[in-house]
Amino acid sequence: MAISKRKKFLVKHASWLLMIVLLVFWEFICRALQVPQFLFPAPTAVLEAGIARWEIISMHALQTLYTTLVGFAIAVAFGLLVGMAVGSSPLVYRALYPMMVGFNSIPKVAFVPVLVVWFGIGTVPAILTAFLISFFPVLVNVATGLSTLEPELEDVLRSMGASKLDILRKVGLPRTMPYFFASLKVAITLAFVGSVISETVASNLGIGYLMMAASSSMDMALVFAGLIVIGAMGVGMYELFALTEKRFTGWANRGSGGVA
Amino acid sequence: MAISKRKKFLVKHASWLLMIVLLVFWEFICRALQVPQFLFPAPTAVLEAGIARWEIISMHALQTLYTTLVGFAIAVAFGLLVGMAVGSSPLVYRALYPMMVGFNSIPKVAFVPVLVVWFGIGTVPAILTAFLISFFPVLVNVATGLSTLEPELEDVLRSMGASKLDILRKVGLPRTMPYFFASLKVAITLAFVGSVISETVASNLGIGYLMMAASSSMDMALVFAGLIVIGAMGVGMYELFALTEKRFTGWANRGSGGVA
Amino acid sequence: MTNINFTLDWRIEGPSAPFLMALERGYFEEEGLRVSIDSGNGSAGAVTRVATGAYDMGFADFNALVEHVAANPDDSLQAVYMVYNSIPAAVFAAKSSGIETPADLVGKTLGSPVFDGGRKAWPSFAAANGLEVDAVSWESVDPAIRETLMAQGRLDGITGFYFTSLLNLEARGMDMDDVTVMLYADFGVPLYGNAIIASNGMMRDNPDAVAAFNRAFNRALVETIEDPATAITYVKQRDGLIDEELELRRLNLALESVVITDDTRRDGLGSVTMERLETAIDEAVSSFGLSMTPVAAELFNMDMLPERASREVPAL
Amino acid sequence: MEQVRFEQVSLAYDEGGPLAIQDISLSVAENEFIAVVGPSGCGKSTLMKLVSGLTEPTEGYVYVGGRQVAGPQKCIGMAFQASNLLPWRTTLDNVMLPLEIVQPYRSQMRRQRKAFEARCRDLLARVGLAGNEDKFPWELSGGMQQRASICRALIHKPKLLMLDEPFGALDAFTKEELWIMLQELWQEEPFTVILVTHDLREATFLADTVYVLSKGPGQLVARKAIEQARPRKLEWTYTDDFARDVHELREHIGRIRES
Amino acid sequence: MEQVRFEQVSLAYDEGGPLAIQDISLSVAENEFIAVVGPSGCGKSTLMKLVSGLTEPTEGYVYVGGRQVAGPQKCIGMAFQASNLLPWRTTLDNVMLPLEIVQPYRSQMRRQRKAFEARCRDLLARVGLAGNEDKFPWELSGGMQQRASICRALIHKPKLLMLDEPFGALDAFTKEELWIMLQELWQEEPFTVILVTHDLREATFLADTVYVLSKGPGQLVARKAIEQARPRKLEWTYTDDFARDVHELREHIGRIRES
Ligand SMILES: Nc1ncnc2c1ncn2[C@@H]1O[C@H](COP(=O)(O)OP(=O)(O)OP(=O)(O)O)[C@@H](O)[C@H]1O
Ligand SMILES: Nc1ncnc2c1ncn2[C@@H]1O[C@H](COP(=O)(O)OP(=O)(O)OP(=O)(O)O)[C@@H](O)[C@H]1O
Ligand SMILES: [Mg+2]
Ligand SMILES: [Mg+2]
């Protein structure tokens, strides 16, 4: 029992423990190899910079969080809708899929200038970039989830005379939830990447701007503080999903003990 | 029957047809709105540029394809392995997942300068960037696939006294294939993005370099030709997966008629 | 043979001509050097590349070097050949916004990336022309789109490299008659431009190779000035993508604006005067808000320059 | 009036492949209770899919309620051979499903949710699942899943009820209780029933007419009317009369196997 | 020698929740054929999971082959109540699965693949599935899936065979054929069998000993030895002798239900 309790403790706090281990390791590497500050600052330096400038950082972070979340929300809605279309119709599947893959192979940063020219500098291009970069995983996973739906379950609904829409709502989507939540984890990281990238190209606000500004004044510690804030926001969003996911896909995770 | 034949034809060639429609639409917009060439060149201009410089483009494209594929291969292997660990062990799940999400929220382009210092400019940073950017979707989907494995199927193997590894090989992985292939579609697009981005920052070769060079000589048609070549390579890779996918996940797609 | 890997400030363009010419014509080899040249990612990035030892030498912004050494006093990177005798930055402003003189900039919006040399040196420009530092407001935009935005009238003006932004504005359909161009050097900014820099290790272990590099480069630079059109062919040879005509213009603009100046006519190519160097460093320190002032003599190593006679600006 | 009608129906799952059923013609009157028996793999489940419109016949026509079947039907309740409960819904929610889909319940769902829930709980209690309403399907035993699936087929009072081996995983006593329950429901408010079963006693006890399918591609080989009056009592199953009927069916099937 | 032994075993699926089985003690001799009967939901499948080590008892101990069960066993063949065939494998490959996992077959797989395949095809033919080897599970009827699953449990000649309602979806004739087949196999090379079934005739015909579980949390309420000599013939099932045994079991269960 004692062993199991210790194990539970370990499982519960594993992420913190690992993070601390990694930070210590990073600090050690930086000191031992004397990695120059302007290349890769040690965590202590980053922390220092972060604390010293936390007000500025948090202002920029809020902006980035805002654009990211709006872009992400649009991406999820769009990804779900198109994913449903792709997953339910062979015609749409054939027509859209290659196109989408092609489009997504293109670095979105190439479109930012065009967006800036159309929508001005700042929030809108960041939102759109976050959207453009993050809808694809949602689309692919929703489409895959729907197209691998067991026909037996579909038949249950069909036998009641359910419409296509009913089938989608009552069987297709619930069955697709594990796929959907998996894609959210990928999509949120991409949304952050998208808005930060757009901010580096054209914005006066946001972590992307902060990082550019910091790196142009060679303040790498601040750059890394920005990166870490992004990472932390990503983790925060993940924890949020993890909570929701538990509710929606508990049935699918019934096998794997403590995971879900 | 005639109708069904026409429909089949439509389904088969849908991607081409849609592409042609879009190109015509793009051309039309460019002409009608007189979109300036330096902002968004028309397809005809892009085609012209592409044909005029096809030798150079294909040289750069080959380099990009090479770095992308190597990075992608590493990403798939790594994503599979870590995904298997995350999907089978609650401890690893808890420890690694938040970390990975945090890491992936950070734009990879921020790491390229560091990679350049260690590995010089060119092929290696491009490969590594492609890897870093594209392993996450594979990891997430493999982990999700494994952790949503029906315990009933697992029990079949367990009742034979199969080892954990056997269970993974005989049930876990086959069951996860639909998830895996979905992730490949996302990962390959990201791998292209990664290597191109790395090339724009640190390389003398590759489509990324081509695009930067072209844009600094204000040859937007060539920039877009580069983008389109990337897209086309993405589609090519997708078609390759689609073929393999059919073999491995046909069982899961049995419901959806002509799709798989 | 000594191996030297060298990073440019930016992509292969017209102004890279002398480096490529020295390579292709074998001038480096004649000096006993095996040189490889890579394209760069910004003139500040080049400093980092050399500082970390990833590259032995590079073509980098001298002001970025000042900044780097101010932040990392232990790093003894040195500039060894001042290629651009003055900072190539300029303000480009639309006459339609009513801008003819620096004073007209007050209250206007300028655009450029935060790392742009012109933007960073703005306080110098402002001081030299009697403006408040915050007389203009800034939009941070990527280099790739600032000219587009200005051409569209979304920005009153931009800062940028003279010979880059000028060409970009033209390509976006602006008539240079409608644009006010204020080259920093012409408006009292004493800052230096891009220089060849050498790493710590290079200077310590093999100063002769650095000097040799400079000799070879100097020779190529002189020949480039004499015949830019031929020089451009080496650029084309290296990178088939470039538009020769355009790059020739770019090269000529660079030569005219920042390479052939009163100073270089007087002191020869590549050199600096200690006096101006000190002013320039002070100016950089105050402009960028640096915490310390590096010692001028440690930042620029005069000993590496080829002899004076070979550095004469050729008469055209 | 005729409720279901097969006209020389054949079906091959793969185009040009072997037939699953062949040349079947039969008709079921409104409110008739028929049973279909036959060896394993003869096409009984296939027959059910045809009636409910889940598959289309390769040849011939199927009519339900006088209309040719083209796609899923609205008035049907079906219990599948494998219970096919939705794993993300509790037992109660699984049984509620038809009420969320089928009119007129669907439009009353909002207002009457509580009443519908009570109705589901009642039905679940009747099949012995009281107390299991909030369990998920995988927390039920095989027989319990099957009973939940029967409830799901019944809850919306379909005009045509189709049961594909609904009692296969139940012990004799539970099974017999459910026979009685089904008969009661059917007598209270008559509806048409098609029952597929392997249990000849079950077929005899419940059905008005029993159809026997042959092996291989299923063909109709016999049709036997069971004349016993309703309500039938369990005691009847101990009579010789009953045994004779069962035996006759048994012989039909035995003959198929030998051929 | 004792093959399986339960010592006061209880199990609750949820910690502190209701018991699924309660205080069960029994022992199965080597090569004994036992059957377990009881009302639906009484814990028969749970019992099987305990023997095969898929679940751990909450209280008490389970021994197999003299060793306490801690985790999955190596010498077991199990046919689940729901057939649980792997959907990405053809019928043949599903039946081959144990040979890929269990020693000594596993290490001979490479060299003897052909021979093993032939063996699987033989077994499939014996249960009437010849010609369906290359079909996927969802292309089989319910009864065919069940037969494939029986083959999968038998193919590697396990020392302990566990069958959880293996014949529930089969018609009477196929079922009886398989009874005979199972008895033959068992007599050729004896092994221990635990059979869960709802069919009391089946239990009586096949088993040496029949255990009766009570409703609710399953408890052992009766144990009946069937004395009939082997090999038993189907004719025996028509005798009064047989009927009496079946009836006795029936009464046991009937009494459970009333209580
Ligand atoms: N989805 C399918 N694809 C291809 N063949 C199928 C499919 N479903 C059933 N079959 C085949 O059709 C035949 C009839 O199957 P069906 O399920 O109707 O039998 P059944 O009478 O219900 O048998 P059981 O009593 O075993 O349930 C079988 O030979 C089976 O292999
Ligand atoms: N995975 C599970 N989680 C929670 N409860 C379960 C689970 N599996 C079974 N149960 C419960 O345990 C009890 C016994 O189930 P079990 O499957 O052993 O019954 P059974 O005797 O096999 O019934 P049947 O004859 O219907 O198959 C039931 O009340 C069931 O609800
Ligand atoms: Mg069937
Ligand atoms: Mg059971």
UniProtKB/TrEMBL annotation, chains A, B:
Domain ABC transmembrane type-1: from-to ranges: 61-241
PANTHER family: ABC TRANSPORTER PERMEASE PROTEIN HI_0355-RELATED, ALKANE SULFONATE ABC TRANSPORTER-RELATED, MEMBRANE SUBUNIT
Organism: Natronospirillum operosum
Principal cellular location given in the protein's record: membrane
Keywords carried by this UniProt record: Cell membrane, Membrane, Transmembrane, Transmembrane helix, Transport
A GO cellular component entry from the record: plasma membrane
SUPFAM superfamilies: MetI-like (SSF161098)
Cell location: Cell membrane
Bilayer-spanning residue ranges: 65-87, 179-201, 221-241
Chain coiled-coil ranges: none
Membrane topology according to the record: Multi-pass membrane protein
Keyword rRNA processing (UniProt): no
Family assignment from sequence similarity: Belongs to the binding-protein-dependent transport system permease family.
Protein name: ABC transporter permease
Keyword Transport in annotation: yes
PROSITE patterns: ABC_TM1
Gene Ontology biological process terms in this record: transmembrane transport
From TrEMBL, chains D, E:
Domain named ABC transporter: residues: 4-240
Keyword line: ATP-binding, Nucleotide-binding, Transport
GO MF annotations, alphabetized: ATP binding; ATP hydrolysis activity
Pfam families: ABC_tran
Superkingdom of this protein's organism: Bacteria
Family: Belongs to the ABC transporter superfamily.
PANTHER family noted in UniProt: ALIPHATIC SULFONATES IMPORT ATP-BINDING PROTEIN SSUB, TAURINE IMPORT ATP-BINDING PROTEIN-RELATED
Protein name: ABC transporter ATP-binding protein
